[in-house]
Design brief:
Radius of gyration: 19 Å
Largest sheet: 5 strands, antiparallel
Shape: globular
Strand content: over 45%
Number of helices: 1
C-alpha cells in the first residue's frame, strides 16, 4: 500500500471540558472530508468531500490500477451514540436509535468521491487479513440491529462486488459480538476459513462461541461452545495460530 487514508468527520473539538466527549460539537454543514496522503511524500495529498456521516469502524482500503481508492464504512447520520447513548449504557439505560448502515466509499484520483449507503445494518467490519491493502470481495460484520438492546443479533457476510449480504440470525436473546476470521490451514483464497463469532446468550446466562464456514455464514454454525458463565461483552479480537 502506498497511501494513507484519513477520514475527517464533522465532529469537531471546539472546547476542553470533562468528560472529553462533551468537548466535541457536531457540524454536519461542514460535510465529511477524506485526506489521502502519499506515504513516500506526505506533501503529495488530495482531499475528497463527502456528505456528513459519523462512523466508528471502517473496512480495509485498497487502490485500483487507475488510482481509485475504495473501502467500506459503517455509517450513522450523527454521533448520538458517542455523545449520549454510550454514556446512558454505562448507567444501565438504553435509548432506541437507528443502526449504522454498511456503506462503500469511492475516492477518484481526480478528486471526486461518492458515499454509497445500503440498507444493511452493520458494525464491526472484519475481512481476511491476508488481503490487507489488496482488492477484496468479502466483508464480515455484525448484522440485524434490535431496537431495545445495544448490540446486534446476527452475523453478516457481504459480497462487495454484488452488494449481496448473507445473514445468520442468532435469535432473540443473543448479543452478538465482533467476529474474527481464521484462515483454513494451507488455504490461499480470500475468506477461505472460519468466522469465530462470540455472543452472550441472555436466556442461558452464558457466553457462547459459534464457528462458521466464512463463505457460508448464513448456513449456520458448524459448532458452538458455551462457557460456564457470562464473560464481559468484548470488541476487536484477533486470531493467532498456536
Amino acid at each position: 500500500p502506498t497511501k494513507l487514508v484519513i477520514i475527517l468527520q464533522p465532529w469537531l473539538q471546539d472546547r476542553f471540558v470533562t468528560p472529553v466527549v462533551d468537548s466535541y460539537s457536531w457540524r454536519p454543514e461542514q460535510g465529511t472530508k477524506v485526506l489521502v496522503l502519499d506515504k513516500a511524500d506526505l506533501g503529495r495529498r488530495r482531499i475528497h468531500e463527502l456528505p456528513p456521516f459519523f462512523a466508528f469502524h471502517f473496512g480495509d482500503a485498497w487502490e485500483e490500477r487507475d488510482g481509485t481508492i475504495r473501502f467500506a464504512a459503517c455509517v450513522s447520520d450523527d454521533p448520538d451514540f458517542a455523545q449520549e447513548n454510550g454514556r446512558a449504557l454505562m448507567r444501565g439505560q438504553w435509548k432506541r436509535q437507528a443502526s449504522p448502515k454498511l456503506a462503500g466509499v469511492v475516492l477518484r484520483p481526480g478528486g471526486g468521491a461518492a458515499l454509497e449507503t445500503s440498507a444493511m445494518d452493520a458494525e464491526f467490519p472484519r475481512a481476511d487479513e491476508r488481503f490487507a491493502g489488496l482488492k477484496r470481495r468479502w466483508l464480515a460484520h455484525g448484522a440485524i440491529a434490535v431496537d431495545d438492546v445495544p448490540m446486534f443479533q446476527g452475523l453478516g457476510v457481504t459480497d462487495l462486488e454484488t452488494g449481496r449480504s448473507r445473514v445468520f440470525d442468532f435469535g432473540a436473546g443473543q448479543l452478538a459480538e465482533e467476529a474474527v476470521f481464521a484462515p483454513r490451514p494451507g488455504s490461499s483464497g480470500e475468506m477461505d476459513g472460519w468466522l469465530l463469532a462470540p455472543s452472550v446468550n441472555v436466556r442461558a446466562r452464558a457466553t457462547e462461541l459459534a464457528v462458521f464456514d466464512a463463505r457460508r455464514g448464513d448456513a449456520g454454525p458448524v459448532c458452538v461452545w458455551r462457557a460456564e458463565g457470562v464473560l464481559p461483552v468484548s470488541l476487536h479480537g484477533a486470531f493467532v495460530a498456536a
